[in-house]
Predict the structure.
Amino acid sequence: MTEATGSAPGRVNLIGEHTDYNAGFVLPIATPQQTTVTIQPRADAVVLASSANVAAEAATARFRLGEEHRQGSWIDYVQGVTAALRASGRSIGGFEARIVSEVPLGAGLSSSASLEIALVRAIATLFGLTIDPIDAARIGHAAETEFVGVPVGMMDQMAASLAARDAALFLDTRSLAFESIPLPAGAELLVIDSGIAHEHAAGEYRTRRAECAEAARRLGVDALRDADLAQLARTPLPAPLARRARHVVTENERVLQMCGALRACDLPQAGALMIASHASMRDDFEVSIPPIDALVEIACLEGDVFGARLTGGGFGGCIVALARRGSAAGAGEAIVSAYARRGGHGSVLIPERHPAPSSRAIRP
């Protein structure tokens, strides 16, 4: 084979934030935007990769298989995948790769997982490897956590590997059991970028993970997924651990309730759960910021919006809203206009109008 192509979507998490690394439940859905990787074999062990999504002077990078080492740039995600493939016992040769992504980078839509899964798919096709969707997610996750060093849970890679655009992926991140739950016919998604890039590798994200681990240790459970509100009442935790644990416990319950609301086509209930989720992320987990809170507030004032919340790790990125079918585009424009009057610089990502390669730089 002289060329192979792999694609994978970004993801929007409807509900279930910061629960994946606590062995809990999540409910992502695929975005229409994709990352596409096209590769061609080389006769040596060199990987030469180029990206259409970074500045020209940094758009090309190379490394030798077996000699992967962090370079502090976007190429680390490619190196992470090849290193994880080798660690899994799979043999590949050198290749040239061209990366084009429609997934906005730094917006909390899992552009890195999209790249990882697209690359795994292209490599598997070119070199005749058998890699099932869960194995692909594990390889992508290993690339991001063990090589790049970003402490994310498994949700992003599982969503990039398994999620669909018209159905949410209900995922148990402990067992990796999953179920597809269609969106109700009367609903559609609205995703708005706040214009503020987030950074998963930043200290606050790592701090939240450490706080959750410490809360679980004090509660005597393997992960906060195993705790409940009664246990939190019996075993008082110091601040801020009590708030962090309360968010995870209540968010897991909201995911389960959201699944029920979607199955029952109860859109007002689904919207109310999204609003409650955002309040918990803002007040208990403290990962929202004022511009995001303003976007959520504005969105929830729209008559055709059932509910909205911050989506992704936090500290910037996007909000997701559940809107009445046929109304998302108009509601999105109205929300962005109101946000601009408050000094914001947002943009509607879904429903998309004119998808184009993202111009933001990938951050390791």
